[in-house]
Design goal:
single chain, 323 residues, alpha/beta, eight-stranded parallel barrel, two-stranded antiparallel ribbon
């Protein structure tokens, strides 16, 4: 398991990863994006920004980097960075397939990505990822599995994924939507030749969306590495958008709302890696303070009261505009 590399790491931030969804393409749904990126979102501008973030993250102890075929040019930017820093051999590299990026480097496309979990899409995107990341790819995940995804029942696809696993690539899946727990449990039951297919799960979990917690605990107990995404709820838990109880706890800790929000996730015993989705070096540095936040029981209880019903949370997320 590539994540065994993190088990022996000694930096307090080694279990915080950097996700590249916000910097691999000009448009995304995170709040405050115009302030974060400004108007210059050319390919080269975001390539430079991504490299600067990767440099800063690595220097501060981050050792997991997460991309996807649908994150614009995130794999390309990550591959470029790896190729120019050949001495770095202690990172874990993950990517995802199952969505195709269709926005053509614009922010106002009618459709930014198209989902397809077919064998044909896997074969095409696996080749595309291999061309960019080659043997640096440690983890390949099915992107946004839901309970109705054919990826849960397609035996031909399972055989292809098992073949990749036999070749040394860890196979995982990510989830989204209000039925994440159902998708996780269904994926845990997928086997090939009597052996579990998936070794990692990446799910949305944050102070507002906690519904996947029991299933993620089950996945952890089954031996999977749990990666948590959207710990900041696409910016809803960051200044200035954070709810008042989170702002109050942040003031008590003398740290940012973002650090407190991510610290809340890091407290979960099943959380193996918690992703930062920072778009600036300043955001990244603030996010990484999560590793040293010490929340007491009263603060945790106040933050627990922020949880929303999954249907309401995901409806609000779906309504976020692409900026």
């Amino acid at each position: 398991m590539p994540f065994a590399r993190l088990a022996t790491a000694t930096t307090p931030t080694c279990h915080i990863g950097l996700g590249l969804a916000a910097v691999g393409r000009p448009g995304y749904i995170n709040l405050g994006r115009d302030e974060d990126l400004g108007e210059n979102r050319t390919v080269e501008a975001l390539r430079t920004r991504t490299h600067d973030l990767l440099d800063a993250a690595y220097a501060q102890g981050v050792r997991y980097f997460d991309a996807a075929r649908s994150y614009g040019r995130s794999e390309e930017f990550l591959a470029d960075w790896l190729s120019t820093r050949g001495d770095i051999d202690d990172v874990v590299i993950g990517s995802k397939w199952g969505y195709t990026y269709t926005a053509d480097w614009t922010t106002d496309a009618e459709q930014h990505e198209v989902k397809d979990h077919s064998v044909q899409t896997y074969d095409r995107q696996r080749a595309e990822t291999a061309e960019l990341l080659g043997d640096r790819l440690d983890l390949y995940q099915i992107h946004s599995v839901t309970p109705d995804s054919p990826a849960l029942t397609d035996k031909e696809l399972h055989a292809r994924l098992a073949e990749a696993a036999a070749g040394g690539v860890t196979i995982g899946f990510s989830t989204s939507g209000p039925a994440q727990a159902d998708a996780i449990r269904a994926a845990l039951a997928v086997t090939v030749d009597g052996e579990p297919l998936f070794r990692t799960v990446q799910s949305t979990y944050n102070a507002l969306e906690t519904s996947a917690a029991p299933a993620l605990a089950e996945a952890h107990d089954a031996g999977l590495t749990v990666i948590v995404k959207e710990g900041m709820a696409n910016g809803r838990l960051a200044e200035p958008y954070a709810p008042q109880p989170l702002k109050a706890v942040a003031a008590e800790t003398d740290l940012g709302c973002d650090a407190v929000a991510l610290a809340l996730v890091l407290r979960r015993p099943w959380a193996g890696v918690v992703l930062s989705g920072a778009a600036t070096a300043t955001q990244l540095a603030s996010n990484l303070h999560a590793a040293v936040v010490d929340l007491d029981d009263d603060q945790v209880a106040r933050l627990a009261a922020l949880a929303e019903e999954p249907q309401a949370y995901w409806a609000r997320r779906a309504a976020l505009p692409w900026h």
